[in-house]
Amino acid sequence: MSQHKLLLAQLRKSARADGSLDHDKLVGLIDASYHDCDRERRRSERSIDLMVKELGELNANLESIALRRADELRGVRIALDATLQNTAQGIFVIDASGRVTSCNDRAIEMLDLPRDMMEAHPHISEVKMFLRGRGEFEHVNLAEHPWLEGDSLTGAPLLYERRRPNGVMLEVRTVTLASGGAVRTLTDVTEERRRLEELRQAERMHRNLFENAAAGLYRATLSGQLLNANMALARIFGCENIEDFIASFNSRKRWKPIGEDWRPDFAKQLWSKGYVTDFVCEAFEVATGRRMWYSQTAWLVRDANGKPLYYEGSVADITARKVAENRLAHLAMHDSLTGLHNRAALMQWLSDQESNPTARSFAIHCIDLDRFKEVNDDLGHAAGDLLLRQAADRLTQNMRADDFAVRLGGDEFAVVQQSVTSPRAVSRFGDRLIALLSEEYDLDGCPATVGASVGGAIFDPGNPSHDQLLKHADLALYSAKTAGGGRTRLYDADLEAEHARRRMIEHNLKSALEEGQFSLAYQPILDCESGVVVNYEALIRWTHPTAGFISPAEFIPIAEQTAIINNIGEWVLREACALFARSRCKAGVSVNVSPAQLRNRGFVDIVRNTLTSEKLAPERLTLEITETALLSDNAATRAQLKELRAMGVKIALDDFGSGHSSLAYLNKYRFDKLKIDRSFIAGRRRNRVNAAVINAAISLGRDLGFEVIAEGVETEEQLKDLASLGCNSLQGYLIGRPQPAAMWPDLCEKRPQPRRVKKVA
Fold first, then answer.
1. Domain 213-323 - what CATH class?
2. CA-based nearest residue to 217, from 209, 561, 642
3. Which of 307, 381, 624, 745 is deepest in the core (most CB within 10 A)?
């Protein structure tokens, strides 16, 4: 119609005035109209093309977005699936109808479900039926969980735990969804519950230990107020319940430290180091007031930021230990037998004097009881101990206020004499000590008398060495005893010279043996009946390169105090045996044996090896021993002497009568010879006791069958008297002085004529 309207309009425009139609104009109008329509058509086509193109691009964009969103959704699903599959929890997704739409592998694994069943998206009731039929809920009280028998999760708690038959503990959590479905998660809490149980057990154990521990345990505020304590701690302080103890302790009325308050020092250590170890305190027992010692160990307890909250600690009653320590400390400085101070206490006191610039002059007296061993031997060790206690009491009761006595050991004492005025006063003090200790003792009804020897040394401020001072006093004592005992000797320059010579001898003994400075002299022993020299005594001599001749009486005692005496004795034995094995005379040789040699368990082997190597018959060797060697009277000494005699070696008891147990030794030991000490020979006619000893010795020899030899024969008168009494052999300057082997013709390798003397009628 619109085009018809356009044609009518064009006809009207082409009509002429006369009403005729202008065909050219009409054609022109129609042509223009077609031209306009064509232009509009082309414009519309262009618009349509543009729209098609834009729609195509939009379509392409939408498809790209759709693909990208699909990829993103696929990635999210993959990530979600990966998360579900790799999570430690088991996950079930259940829709509103109760069907399991999804579950991860962990859920299947945790409940040990068939995978094909779960891939078929079963209803939750099927899953419960399967699990119930397998006995999964045997540890569950179904009366408390009736929903387990229903067809849904209705009534199920949102969170609960249950134990599987295999012991695994599961935490089951349910989250409901707005759609009506639910998500159920399973978490294996077995290890967590085990640890929790361990913590609970540890807590119970800690509580039990705290409450029942033998050691006292406590917890206190930083200011020192007790918060808690165990029964053991209450009992340590004499309380029968914890509440009373804490109240008493915190009140600070009944609990008080002894002496200087230790609490500030305790707090200082605790705050500076964070702990205190073995802090010893002395206090009064809370309940009884008894004095006690205890040891604390404490430590600060801090929060997570390191701020101190309180401190805890343990307490041990160490009263018994401290009493024992004090007792040991007393014993360490006191002699257990006499109660006097001991050597350690004396050395400590002397050390204090060294460091004391105001120390007063003093002297030390070293004391040795003479003949104390005889009391032990005759009356027994109990009597000897009683004598020592009585001697200590005498010293203590007769000391001045500042003086004190010390027992050094055995029968040796020391007295410190203070405020010394002169050496003479020191000597008089020593003499009074001797008189005091020499008075008769009453040993449970048995009287006993011993003497004493005293060596004194005066403190020299210029040389305050306490070691030297005690050594000087000991040297003085040694000198007093060497001089016969029963006297006082003060250390002086002469004694220093004696000591220096002694040190020189001691130092040179070893080199003397190594350098061949020793030699042997031989003194003949004459048989009275035949007038023939039947034996020689080998006597050692020492000629020092610078000091000259040193007497055996001087160096042998020193050698006996060191191991060198064994080497010297073995050398003498070997030299003597070698000489007599080479000589052609029939005489035997006598060798002196020291006590130290007899104590050597290998001595018998030394003698045997020497006789064998030097090829000397055992019966030609006589070993002379003194009473000193027999003082210990032990089985080993008796066994060695018995073995030597069994070899054929003769044993002689030397210096008979000079000791105090000569007759006792004759009863205990078997001897082949007995040598009467020279002191009895010289005074025989002037002293009835000497004459009696000689007569007794000769009678014993005759009755017991051993040879009696008189030593120290120097006059014809002595020779005749001894021969008339029946003495077997004689030795002394009248018979012959000790001389080197070269001076005795019968000791040479050529056989000499036997020396004879006029036979005594």
1. alpha beta
2. 209
3. 624
Q: What is the DSSP string of 354-377?
A: HT-TTPPPEEEEEEEEETHHHHHH
Place of tokens 């023939």: 532
Q: Which residues contact 46 (CB under 8 A, 6 or more apart)?
A: none
What's the CA angle centered on 68, arms 66 and 72, to 5 degrees? 115
26: closest CA among 42, 10, 6?
10
Pick from 537, 494, 744: nearest CA to 650: 537
Provide the CA 755 distance to its chain's centre, in angstroms. Answer: 71
Q: Which two tokens stand for residue 312?
A: 């805890």
Bridge partners of 415, per DSSP, are: 365, 405
* Torsion region of 424: left, alpha or beta (phi above 0 gives left; psi -120 to 50 gives alpha): alpha
Class of the domain covering 87-193? alpha beta
* DSSP per-residue string spanning 663-711: HHHHHHS--SEEEE-HHHHHTTTT-HHHHHHHHHHHHHHHHHT-EEEE-
Q: Rounded to whole angstroms, how far apart are CA atoms 480 and 489?
A: 6
At 456 the pLDDT is: 93
pLDDT, tens only, 197-231: 777 776 666 565 555 666 788 888 988 888 888 88
Class at the top of the CATH hierarchy for domain 531-747: alpha beta
Average pLDDT over residues 107-117: 88
CATH topology of domain 337-491: Alpha-Beta Plaits (3.30.70)
Write the secondary structure of 557-569 as one string of H (helix), E (strand) and C (coil).
Answer: HHHHCCCHHHHHH
Taking the C-alpha atoms of residue 340 and residue 330, their distance in angstroms, rounded to an integer, is 10
Place of tokens 């340590």: 236
Q: pLDDT tens, 485-510?
A: 889 999 888 888 888 888 899 899 98
Provide DSSP, 436-474.
HHHS-EEETTEEE--EEEEEEEE--TTS--HHHHHHHHH
Q: 414 in helix, strand or coil?
A: strand
The counts of H helices and E strands in the chain are 25, 27
Name the token pair of 33.
Answer: 């109209």
Segment 367-416, tens digit of pLDDT:
999 888 888 888 888 999 999 999 999 999 988 888 999 999 999 999 99
Residue type for 629, please?
A
When mean pLDDT is compared across 217-221, 428-432, 606-610, 643-647, the lowest value belongs to: 217-221
Domains of the chain, residue spans: 2-79, 87-193, 213-323, 337-491, 531-747
Measure the CA–CA gap between 716 and 718, rounded to whole angstroms: 5
* 3-state SS, residue 91: strand
| Contact status, residue 623 vs residue 641, Cβ threshold 8 Å | no
Tell me if domain 87-193 and domain 213-323 are identical in fold. Answer: yes
